[in-house]
Amino acid sequence: MTAATIKEAFASAEIINAWPEPRELPGGLHPVESFSCELLPVTLRPWVEDIAERMQTPPEYVAIPAMVAAATVVGRKVAIRPKQHDDWREVPNLWGCIIGRPGVLKSPAIGQALKPLGRLAALADEQFQFEKAEFDAANMERELRRDAAKAAMKKALSADPRADVSHLRAEEEDRPSLRRFSTNDSSYQMLGELLRHNTNGLLVSKDELMGLLKPLDREENSEARAFYLQGWNGDGSYTFDRIGRGENLHVPALTLSVLGSTQPAKIQGYVDRIVGGDGDDGLLQRFSMMVWPDTPPSWEYIDRQPRSEYRQAAFDVFDHLNGLTAESVDAETDQYDQRFPYLRFDAEAGERFKVWLTELMERLRSDELHPAIESHFSKYRSLIPSLALLHHLMSGKRGPVGLLSLLSAIAWGDFLEGHAFRVYQSAVNEPAQAAKAILRHLKAGDLPDGFNRREIERRGWAGLQSNSERIQAGLSILIDYGWIREVAGDRPGERGGRPSLPTYIINPAVRP
Asked: In terms of domain of life, where is this protein from (predicted)?
């Protein structure tokens, strides 16, 4: 049955003029809460508010990278053991992503939030240049000492080949190394090299996060993907055994924080592709600090100086974190593993954490959540203790982590939950998303009256590729909401053959 004959059939039955007003499709963006700067430590709050107000950007665009940067500075200095007696620990490195359409100042907001980290990097570079100059200036002295030691050892061994000459060896000084806090574009092998000299961890910052995630999906980059997955744990190590890289090149401390931004269409396409596929190993779900806020409906022109006292307070917070030691915060040390000084919750916070964790684990085991969401929320077992520790340290406190810091972390989790549902909704509500995708193409004139399902499949459009069940479910929703009508295909004739597919007539309101 051709499109023309279909139209004739409708016209003769006087149906074509009886189209209802199409209804709005269900399932818009999942609602999210507005960000409250009360979630931040009071020491950082005014600075974030000041930046967000001057830039007229959602405050979470500043808060998320600021928290990720703070986590980078803490790194392995202090971990948290969330239970009162168990040795389960969490290193407070964080992975964050901010999502928004072009023009909402994602990158400038990240740049402002990372200024305290950039300042620490600049100070570290100054110190390195000074130490390097001192080291280079002492080169001649070291050479002379080395020559003198060699001569003394030779003389002693000539007199007695079995003599102990270890005391005559010249002491070798370690060459100064630059303390790095972040990198923007490194192979995973180069990251390993950097981490060998920066055992507290590093931040990988990418302006467009998909530039990192998509290459990691490729088969040839499976080892790099595994490297990042292990780096999220924060407390592991890594050994390279590759020809051309030297034998047993060991990275003793593999701790990575990751930060980036992307656009709604890109994250939706990525989620559509990976959820339920071979690449669904939880890499995206590790971005627990992921936000996709509503775009503010209004904008105000603001032109004033940044509040210097707020900026200095933020710098002071990062200076404090940079100078942390186990002793300065009264951290404990495990006699069997002294690499990770740690704090625990105090008694009151410990009881509240017990309640929270029990509720989380029961929810994860209820089978009520889509697997992608379940995987995402399972990472909150690490996120909430980490945020509580960071709030505690950024507030200048020492000793056990208190209830206020834990409640702040739990509030963070509640806020982030809605954003997670928004990100994964294309996987959770596939039929509605398919219906919206088809409707976009109908409005653009990409499909003629009398199209069938196979025509959509052949186009390979984003979110509709090679998934006939999803496409059919989307078409059914469009029928129910009055956007299209189905015309049954021809039945097989007496000689057999396959029946033709149903075709679809488009409501004239789609393209008035």
From this structure: Bacteria
* pLDDT score of 466 more than 70: no
Cβ-in-10-Å burial (0-12, 13-18, 19+) of 142 comes to middle
Domains and CATH numbers, the chain: 3-27+429-510 (1.10.10), 42-119+179-359 (no CATH), 127-168 (no CATH)
Closest by Cα among 456, 463, 460, 381 to 429: 463
458-469 in b/e form (b: 16+ CB < 10 A) is eeeeebbeebee
The DSSP result for 349-406, as a single string, is HHHHHHHHHHHHHHHHTTT-S-HHHHHHHHTHHHHHHHHHHHHHHHTT--SSB-HHHH
Q: Cα torsion for 361, 364, 366, 367, to the nearest 10°?
A: -160
| pLDDT, tens digit (0-9, with 9 covering 90-100), for 219-235 | 999 999 999 999 999 99
**pLDDT tens digits along 356-387:** 999 999 999 998 898 899 999 999 999 999 99
User: Do you know the residue count of the chain?
Assistant: 512
- Token pair, residue 87, equals 């040795």
> How far apart, in whole angstroms, are the C-alpha atoms of residue 28 and residue 432?
9
For helices 403-428 and 430-443, give the axis angle rounded to 10 degrees. 60
CA gap 181, 202 in Å, rounded = 5
Cβ atoms 382, 95 nearer than 8 A: no
pTM for this model (two decimals)? 0.82
